[in-house]
Design a protein that fits this description.
Mean pLDDT: 96
Shape: globular
Structural class: alpha/beta
Radius of gyration: 17 Å
Length: about 250
């Protein structure tokens, strides 16, 4: 059994804010859960040096400092996972455990970088709602799109309300992020890797391979869920997170 109830820092993905984690915040009440908005997503000044994974990582360490928390279990989805890899590089002493949801360690391919640049143009020309419509088919699994209209509506509304400068900054930060493959073998804290079985952005084969590269990692595949498994099948994801948190000893 876990010796303590560690604090948990949830890092949202793109194009979302902290509300992405509402089902988890509602369920995991025995833990101290913190779910901030990333810089620029819902407000704040644009950084003079531009957005980057390093900037997001340092910001989040600042969130822990402000909360008086030395070390936490970090849970990141998609872009949140990219940021978590940067925290592992820059601030490993602040991490007690990792929960990686629907993410990948590889950098963008040339095609992927071009896609980010296209989304920047869409955001600047047509706004956040256009980004939401463009990404919805890939963000949600086929089962969710066909059978869970309420989830589709929630995701569309969440993505549509964000600020364009922050979205553009996040797209460029993701485009320019480094390869984090070498980080995986260096992870020495307990790790959970979780992905949706219908995820087209971070396919299950890649998630499973990532888990195999992390010493002692637990892998969980969530059926009938896409890239937003924690929103699409929250009951199953909450069970997996709770099981990991309750039955892991965090030093």
């Amino acid at each position: 059994m876990a010796e303590t109830y560690p604090a948990i820092l949830f890092v949202h993905g793109f194009p979302f804010d902290h509300e992405q984690w509402r089902p988890q915040l509602t369920r995991l009440t025995r833990w101290r859960c913190i779910a901030p908005d990333l810089r620029g997503i819902t407000g704040g000044a644009v950084p003079a040096t531009g957005y980057s994974m390093g900037l997001y990582a340092d910001d989040l360490v600042g969130v822990l400092d402000a909360a008086g928390i030395d070390r936490a279990v970090w849970c990141g989805q998609s872009m949140g996972g990219y940021i978590l890899f940067e925290v592992l590089r820059r601030h490993p002493e602040r991490i007690r455990g990792v929960m990686l949801c629907d993410t990948k360690a590889e950098p963008d391919t040339a095609e992927g970088k071009a896609g980010r640049d296209e989304l920047v143009r869409v955001a600047e020309r047509d706004g956040a709602a256009a980004i939401a419509e463009r990404l919805l088919p890939k963000l949600l699994g086929a089962t969710t799109r066909a059978q869970r209209p309420e989830v589709v509506a929630t995701v569309r509304a969440m993505a549509s309300r964000l600020l364009v400068p922050g979205l553009v900054g996040a797209l460029r930060a993701m485009r320019d992020r480094p390869d984090s493959g070498a980080v995986l073998e260096k992870i020495s804290v307990p790790a959970l890797v979780l992905g949706g079985s219908e995820d087209e952005i971070s396919p299950t084969a890649g998630m499973r391979a990532m888990a195999q590269r992390i010493r002692g990692a637990t892998y969980v595949e969530v059926p009938e869920a896409g890239h937003l498994a924690a929103l699409e099948r929250p009951e199953l994801v909450n069970e997996a997170l709770e099981d990991f948190l309750l039955h892991t000893s965090f030093r």
